[in-house]
Amino acid sequence: xxxxxxxxxxxxxxxxxxxxxxxxxxxxxxxxxxxxxxxxxxxxxxxxxxxxxxxxxxxxxxxxxxxxxxxxxxxxxxxxxxxxxxxxxxxxxxxxxxxxxxxxxxxxxxxxxxxxxxxxxxxxxxxxxxxxxxxxxxxxxxxxxxxxxxxxxxxxxxxxxxxxxxxxxxxxxxxxxxxxxxxxxxxxxxxxxxxxxxxxxxxxxxxxxxxxxxxxxxxxxxxxxxx
Length: 227
Ligand code: FE
Fold this sequence. Notes:
alpha+beta; 7-stranded antiparallel sheet; 3-stranded antiparallel sheet
């Protein structure tokens, strides 16, 4: 069995919103699927450990904002790798309250859906929530992002121009520090560099171009802190 076959499935990226009491939250998911058209229903699979899972269980509603191709990688990183238990992820994001009461993220979205849960399917680590569509709007005609595009562009925009050998020779030897991504916990080790991102081994963090992003979550270089 070749599990890489699963990677051939195309997915979009969505911000799933829900609420519990007076609290709202959102998270990234790639598993929104239309199930039926009469009546229109959609499903989303959410990890049981996520705060959004608790919220959907409680309120029985969810929204799905469909992200467009121009979505900054750090935006996806913020929603995918920070927990609503630690930070208010919607605080600095343009959003509105939908007719279900669920928050609807408007930034970087080309459309949104709102659904009332009609069935939950226990899928082990995840629950599949099936919802009846109660609202849906198109916001703009930007193309929807795909997960494959996100992965490819994340690599593609990373400069391949690692600092040259000569430039490195001229540098006085300095103690090179490791840096940690405050979004996902990835640690940049200057001894190893980041081959996927075109950063050669031996490159100090300070010498990495500002356009470089976290290879795990896509957070900006400025999201890193020195260890
Ligand atoms: Fe990260």
